[in-house]
């Protein structure tokens, strides 16, 4: 616990603090940055929370999210931090343009990714946590931060989203206990779930329908393709098909799910999911991608989606022993 | 707590116990019956768990579920119980053919439905519980039952399913604490979620695609129709569209979701869901149905689905002040 106590000293001794999350922000990232920002502000410090990317609109209704700044806004403010806290990033390139200022500052890294490269001066990295927001919750408690309904709700967001609303294998007893404590403090699970999950567009549904109509199933394997024309005809972008591959995995008796997505024209991304035993990260790595054993992906430029599908299926069938 | 102590005495004093759940069993029902059966068997009693209906196949892999008996099997066994415990049923007609034997026995009712009619000799009814399985968990603990991985997992099933995997408004701090305790005892949230939720058939997906293609949206309201021909062409029955109305509700800015389902020919069921303020149970009641404020339904014999849709939409638009 030496690292943790040096982290506490560093935060306590600093007066001007910049807290940075990652680009392509998800619920855990947003929740972590905002919860620590609100926490440290409570200690009377000058604190800015920053994410150098567009915040998905469904998160903007949660407390504190609208106050997040990007890199330009940060430069405008001429804010000179005593310390930069980087949250939920396994490597420095994840912070977007903030990467430019990292070398000039003392960096604290707080992250739950097993792949974290310890690029901070102080690193609190612990992959037994289901979410970085869960680490922030513990940190805030050690710092004596008082939780009200607003802080509890935004902090709950990270615990819920990074565990797939308590359905993934990282749903431990400790995660559920922390979630219970946040609910006791005022977090509203139904409000969080409804705000994040019940925000689909009709166009997204039409795209899903296109994906479903093209699903093919063969023993233990299911796959589909979305071409650039599909996206165009539904008025969608690649952001709209986020999570679609999980729908394919939800098919009975399917071990591996593959979704090939072309957006824009000739840029092809492949999402791979497995249920129990196939390590899809190995398949993705063979194709220059990466990820986890149960969720991985890879991308291709100047490619044809059907050709990519063919190559991926060959590798998946091999991995499945067929 | 007088009722609770008389419940404990009754169970402790009885040697031959029949535990009955409801027809059209859901996760909470199955979880409750099996968990109490396994619990009381541990006390050396002769206990049978019964549900007089088909068990949805995805539940059969959970511990103890295959041992559930129906009414015919019960008659075959010539089992004469000292007490009948009825779980998760708001009225006696919910037990299927077991209703015939209720008058001859001492009945204990354990239920979390606010609409429960207290039809037992001893009634433990408490709608502050999110699930009847949560009541069974507390009861088993009072009875000193020891939890292993199997019992923890099947008991967890009810807590998870009746709260929509911790997303509905009944997700309290106590529910999450109990879930955490069951996980500590060996329950596997990911296994439970994956087993129950990742068991869709391709035919179900094709039916979903048909529903999506027919969704219509108008300010705050979204609806769709599945005709008998749709079910036939996808090789589906009405069981396959269970939960589809929630997909419609997941649309952004939609307050009320309506799904009209015709199965079989000219038998029409309407599912109504709302997000925040429209009481759909009132609409359902006007049409001879019932339910809760946010989830209700009604059924029609010898009806045309499009005509039914028209009538329902008129009522919904009225309720929405339009």
From TrEMBL, chains A, B:
Which residue range or ranges hold the DHHA1 domain? 233-320
Pfam families the UniProt entry points to: DHH, DHHA1
- Looking at the record's lineage, which domain of life comes first? Bacteria
Tell me which InterPro entries the record gives.
DDH_dom, DHH_sf, DHHA1_dom, Oligoribo/pAp-PDE_c-di-AMP_PDE
Query: Per UniProt, what is one GO molecular function of this protein?
Result: nucleic acid binding
Q: List, for all copies, the residue spans of the domain called DDH.
A: 16-158
Q: What is this protein called?
A: Phosphoesterase RecJ domain protein
* The species this protein was found in: Pseudothermotoga thermarum DSM 5069
The organism that produces this protein has a lineage beginning with:
Bacteria, Thermotogati, Thermotogota, Thermotogae, Thermotogales
């Amino acid at each position: 616990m030496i690292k943790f106590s040096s982290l506490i000293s560093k935060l306590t001794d600093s007066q001007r603090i910049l807290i940075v999350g990652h680009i392509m922000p998800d619920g855990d990232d947003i929740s972590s940055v905002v919860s620590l920002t609100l926490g440290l502000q409570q200690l009377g410090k000058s604190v800015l929370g920053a994410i150098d990317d567009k915040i998905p609109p469904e998160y903007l209704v949660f407390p504190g999210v609208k106050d997040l700044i990007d890199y330009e806004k940060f430069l405008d403010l001429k804010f000179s931090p005593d310390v930069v806290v980087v949250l939920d990033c396994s490597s420095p390139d994840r912070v977007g343009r903030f990467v430019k200022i990292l070398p000039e500052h003392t960096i604290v890294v707080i992250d739950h990714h097993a792949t974290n490269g310890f690029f901070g001066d102080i690193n609190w990295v612990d992959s037994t946590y289901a979410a970085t927001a869960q680490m922030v919750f513990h940190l805030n408690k050690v710092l004596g931060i008082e939780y009200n309904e607003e802080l509890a709700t935004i902090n709950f967001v990270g615990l819920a989203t990074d565990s797939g609303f308590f359905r993934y294998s990282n749903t431990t007893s400790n995660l559920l206990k922390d979630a219970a404590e946040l609910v006791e403090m005022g977090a509203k699970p139904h409000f969080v779930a409804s705000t994040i999950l019940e925000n689909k567009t009709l166009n997204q549904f039409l795209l899903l329908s296109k994906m479903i109509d093209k699903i093919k199933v063969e023993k233990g394997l299911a796959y589909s393709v979305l071409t650039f024309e599909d996206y165009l005809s539904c008025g969608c972008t690649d952001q709209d098909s986020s999570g679609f591959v999980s729908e394919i995995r939800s098919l009975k008796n399917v071990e591996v799910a593959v979704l090939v997505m072309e957006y824009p024209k000739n840029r092809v991304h492949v999402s791979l999911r497995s249920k129990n035993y196939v390590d899809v990260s190995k398949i993705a790595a063979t194709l220059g991608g990466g990820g986890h054993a149960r969720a991985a992906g890879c991308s291709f430029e100047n490619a044809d989606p059907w050709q990519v599908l063919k190559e991926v299926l060959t590798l998946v069938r091999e991995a499945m022993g067929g």
